[in-house]
């Protein structure tokens, strides 16, 4: 576990400064979450469907993060999963607990995600894992790290030997379509993993623990920090344009990498992969019906 230095309030908006703020607040929020009572049945409600849960801890963590950002970056708008906000003017995009179902069940794969954005593009971000104590972060043009150690994506070039992460939506009818997509893709790759936290799946791509990741239906707060971490580690990344933000291509990759996916993956896809298999994985997803998910 890394203990970050203290950040004092000031107005600098360079990626290194914003990254330091994100790291500090994410680490503090993880400590805050570790001090909360375990979720109880009375502290759990649902949102978009009976399987889309939210706990009292989600609200508590987001309230904590908003207060800390207000102290360190006064006046900067926050767009968060539980407290909402204006996506078009957001400086900070926050997911207080990504992987809430894992958290509810006592599974350790959940995280707090904080991203700093400019005109809808992530310029810095940090993801803290309260259970494992890991802290992932990146700044635009400055690489990505886990607990201070530089990250690099896998060097694999064989799609058939690639481990691919995915996830599923909360509504039953869309889950069925996602299951069909995975069933079509599964025979063509080494295996598929569904861990239950999009932010950490993107970190897994950055670390080389996954060769690729594909999921439909993620919200901006799910991927805002994680896609920058993956991209700065060398991944080819394709995401949906954030709500209320116009003019973004949604496609980016490291310098010198092969071209990223060029559409046909679905309007709300999140995609990240090692450059050596990114094109083939995207083509496989398209052939398997990604656009219809």
From TrEMBL:
GO terms for biological process: inositol metabolic process; phosphatidylinositol phosphate biosynthetic process; signal transduction. It comes from the Bacteria. PROSITE patterns: IMP_1, IMP_2. It catalyses: a myo-inositol phosphate + H2O = myo-inositol + phosphate. Residues 45-57 have a biased composition (Polar residues). The keyword DNA-binding does not apply. Mg(2+) binds at residues 81, 95, 97-98, 222. Its EC number is 3.1.3.25. Keywords: Hydrolase, Magnesium, Metal-binding. The keyword Amino-acid biosynthesis does not apply. Residues 29-57 are annotated as: Disordered. PANTHER family: INOSITOL MONOPHOSPHATASE (PTHR20854), INOSITOL-1-MONOPHOSPHATASE-RELATED (PTHR20854:SF4). Belongs to the inositol monophosphatase superfamily. This is Inositol-1-monophosphatase. The lineage of its organism: Bacteria, Bacillati, Actinomycetota, Actinomycetes, Pseudonocardiales.
């Amino acid at each position: 576990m890394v203990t970050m230095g203290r950040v004092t309030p000031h107005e600098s908006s360079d990626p290194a400064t914003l990254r330091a703020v994100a790291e500090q607040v994410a680490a503090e929020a993880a400590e805050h979450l570790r001090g909360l009572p375990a979720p109880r049945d009375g502290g759990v409600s649902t949102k978009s469907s009976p399987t889309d849960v939210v706990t009292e801890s989600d609200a508590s963590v987001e309230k904590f993060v908003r207060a800390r950002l207000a102290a360190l970056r006064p006046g900067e708008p926050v767009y968060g999963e539980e407290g909402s906000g204006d996506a078009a003017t957001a400086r900070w995009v926050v997911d207080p607990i990504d992987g809430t179902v894992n958290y509810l069940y006592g599974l350790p794969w959940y995280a707090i995600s904080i991203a700093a954005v400019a005109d809808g593009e992530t310029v810095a971000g940090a993801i803290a894992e309260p259970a494992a104590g890991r802290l992932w972060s990146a700044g635009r043009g400055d690489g990505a790290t886990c607990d201070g150690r530089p990250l690099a994506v896998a060097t694999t070039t064989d799609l058939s030997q690639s481990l691919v992460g995915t996830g599923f939506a909360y509504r039953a009818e869309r889950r069925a379509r996602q299951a069909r997509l995975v069933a079509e893709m599964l025979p063509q790759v080494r295996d598929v993993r569904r861990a239950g936290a999009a932010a950490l799946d993107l970190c897994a791509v950055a670390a080389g623990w996954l060769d690729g990741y594909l999921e439909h239906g993620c919200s901006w707060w799910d991927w805002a920090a994680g896609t920058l971490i993956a991209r700065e580690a060398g991944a080819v990344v394709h995401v949906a344009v954030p709500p209320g933000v116009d003019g973004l291509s949604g496609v980016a990759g490291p310098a010198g990498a092969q071209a990223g996916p060029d559409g046909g993956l679905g309007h709300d896809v999140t995609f990240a992969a090692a450059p050596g298999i990114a094109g083939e994985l995207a083509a496989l997803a398209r052939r398997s019906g990604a656009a219809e998910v």
